[in-house]
Amino acid sequence: MISLYRNIPILIIFLPALSACTQQSPQIFITIADARQQAAQYIDTGETGDSVGDILVFDQPLLDKNKNPIGNNSGFCIRTRIAYSFQCQWTLTTNNGSIQVAGGEFDKGVSNISIVGGTGVYSGIRGDMESNNNNDGTFTQKLRYWIKK
Fold this sequence. Notes:
The chain is mainly beta. It has one domain: AOC barrel-like (Beta Barrel), CATH 2.40.480. The protein has one helix spanning 8-21, and strands spanning 27-34, 41-43, 55-64, 69-81, 85-94, 97-106, 110-118, 125-133, 138-147. It has an eight-stranded antiparallel β-barrel with strand order 1-3-4-5-6-7-8-9. It starts with 7 loop residues before the first helix and ends with a strand.
């Protein structure tokens, strides 16, 4: 017969580790990057027209989900696949701090991009951002994140 008391020390050791594995639900922050007023600047670096290595540079208004101004969205993208995708890095800046993101941005559809850092209330942030080209000069950005305290 196996004694239950013999396994108690094992449970005592592993319970804290198991509780550390539990994770709260992510926080959600929805923003809109508005490129209608300040379009990205296209820098044609190689062959004329869309080609690998071309650069987009942008500094645009950042809006909340109700389209109220909350900061700016600025960064750059390098064309990595013609008529398909860019590799991008940018910062979403608000009065409370900034969030830095980096990853592949598709020309069409939804892109999933890593959150790589933050400042202010976003210090210690980790997660991902879903970027959706709305085909009207705006991009909806849904950030799912956790902040390590």
